[in-house]
Design goal:
Distance between the termini: 36 Å
Helix content: 10-25%
Strand order of the largest sheet: 6-5-10-13-14-3-15
Shape: globular
Number of strands: 25
Length: 420
């Protein structure tokens, strides 16, 4: 059965291909949106929404100390009052620590709650050896650790994300598709997290972020060639979740929060990720290891483990609820909670079956990640078969349309509800 892929004007130099057996390219020529780097030229905004030009990335969240270096001219200010702490042509490596009195900056104790490090445009910050664009905010937290937030332009942020989220040798069209999804996701977080200290984290719990140190030519080109492009559903911004490998079918976004809209309802058949090294996997879980992990977690000890099984599945077959039976009590966890307990890299996805084997349980699984939204390995295969970035996005997020941030400067961006 041939299933057409909805298309929209997004991509340049579209290659006509025979297409996969179950879907074919949309008709007509796909034309690139006139895409340019986001520039607002100082024009006033029509809303009080946070600026979409930049984003706040939590690159350190609970470290007692960090090492900081600046190559080039810089200014360091107090975060709360903006008082000048230091200026210079170069900052040699200095250790910044959280201390009871405030923040230790090298050998000096500053009685402040936070610092702002502002390099001049040609200067570069290095944090723990990683080069970052933009500025840094360093906050002392109540538990005497540091929160370090990288305030960086949205497009520069994406350069540091795409190189970590996708191999740079993948086809250009899939890199463009992931760049657009990553930009849309980042903007959604920016507009819904304004009351917090940061918009996204710099790890896989948001989007993996390598800063300037991680940038690569091919992924940077994908970001630049789609600059400002996002996708909307019925004119509204939504969180464009994506994952490595779906294992055969995508998942409904209700597993991520209170989301129920067409692009995130899952059920998208995807055999295109079968070449992924994570399409199938197996893990052996000794009963003693499960008991130890529970004892060390917020769930607490439930005694010796006697049974472990999936007691409820989602429509896509993923573990919605697992039940662990111990000698003291029985514990029920969501698939996400189980992966968090045992490690997201160890339990690669909630799409698995359980077989008891002696003093262990063997998990036979498929895919890597939550399964919501775009399957990256599947998208890469579609690109190899000649599909454009627009067609790939429309396949995994049904009902979407493109937009450009430059066209939204003078109006509020409508954002769907939901809890990420």
């Amino acid at each position: 059965m041939r299933r057409p892929v909805p298309s929209f004007p997004l991509d340049i130099d579209r290659k006509q291909g025979t297409g996969p057996g179950t879907i074919v390219p949309g008709p007509g020529t796909i034309v690139l949106l006139a895409v340019a780097a986001l520039a607002v030229s100082g024009a006033p905004r029509a809303s009080a929404q946070p600026s979409p030009e930049w984003i706040r990335v939590a690159v350190v969240r609970e470290d007692p100390e960090v090492s900081l270096q600046v190559q080039g001219r810089f200014t360091i200010l107090t975060l709360q009052t903006g008082n000048l702490i230091q200026q210079g042509k170069r900052l040699p490596t200095v250790v910044v620590r959280a201390v009871p009195e405030g923040i230790a900056f090298g050998g000096e104790i500053l009685r402040v709650g936070g610092l702002r490090v502002e390099p001049e445009p040609q200067a570069t910050i290095s944090l723990n050896g990683r080069r970052l664009r933009g500025a840094l905010e360093i906050r002392r937290q109540r538990n005497q650790t540091l929160l370090v937030v990288n305030r960086v332009s949205l497009e520069d942020y994406l350069r540091g994300v795409l190189s970590k989220e996708a191999p740079d040798y993948w086809p250009p069209e899939v890199l463009k598709a992931i760049a657009i999804a990553a930009r849309t996701y980042a903007l959604y977080q920016r507009l819904t997290k304004a009351s917090g200290d940061y918009d996204v984290t710099g790890d896989v719990m948001s989007q993996d972020y390598g800063g300037e140190s991680g940038e690569k030519d091919a992924t940077t080109r994908a970001v630049q060639s789609t600059a400002g492009v996002i996708i909307l559903h019925r004119g509204r911004l939504f969180p464009t979740f994506y994952h490595s490998t779906c294992g055969g079918m995508t998942e409904h976004a209700r597993v991520m929060g209170d989301y129920d809209l067409e692009p995130l309802r899952g059920g998208v058949a995807c055999t295109f990720c079968s070449a992924s090294p994570f399409f199938r996997w197996q893990r052996r879980l000794p009963k003693a290891d499960i008991a130890w992990a529970l004892r060390k977690s917020v769930h607490g000890s439930i005694g010796a483990i006697s049974d472990f099984r999936v007691t409820k599945r989602t429509a896509s077959g993923r573990a919605q609820e697992v039940t662990i039976v111990g000698e003291r009590r029985t514990l029920r966890l969501t698939g996400f909670d189980l992966r968090s307990l045992l490690g997201f890299e160890h339990i690669r996805s909630p799409l698995f079956t359980v077989t008891p084997v002696a003093d262990s349980f063997v998990l036979d699984g498929r895919g890597w990640g939550h399964g919501v939204g775009m399957c990256q390995w599947g998208a890469a295969e579609l690109a190899r078969r000649g599909f454009s970035a627009g067609e790939i996005l429309a396949y995994y997020y049904p009902g979407i349309a493109p937009a450009n941030l430059r066209d939204l400067v003078h109006q509020p961006i409508d954002v769907i509800g939901g809890t990420p």
